[in-house]
Specification:
Layout: H1 3-10, H2 14-27, H3 29-42, H4 48-63, H5 67-75
Helix pairs in contact: 2-3, 3-4
Length: 78
């Protein structure tokens, strides 16, 4: 899965859209894409869904996102 496919996949859900936007703002698109590419290179032996989960957990920890942050944002999304 390339970077654009990852972003399209995340945009299929409200929570995914929020997380994608947060990553893009916090990291910038270049770092976001480079991080995704590196994760794919490192974990090429895993299933795509496992790579996505590992990536989202790692990047979430990196930018300091907690579940409560999502709930606060989603409460304001129509």
């Amino acid at each position: 899965m390339n970077f654009q496919e990852l972003r399209a996949f995340l945009w299929e859900s409200e929570r995914g859209r929020v997380f994608d936007s947060l990553i893009a703002v916090e990291c910038g698109l270049e770092m976001y894409e480079a991080s995704w590419d590196a994760m794919c290179d490192i974990h090429h032996d895993l299933e795509t869904n496992d790579i996505i989960v590992n990536f989202l957990v790692d990047i979430g920890e990196y930018i300091g996102v907690e579940d409560s942050d999502f709930e606060k944002v989603l409460a304001h999304v129509e």
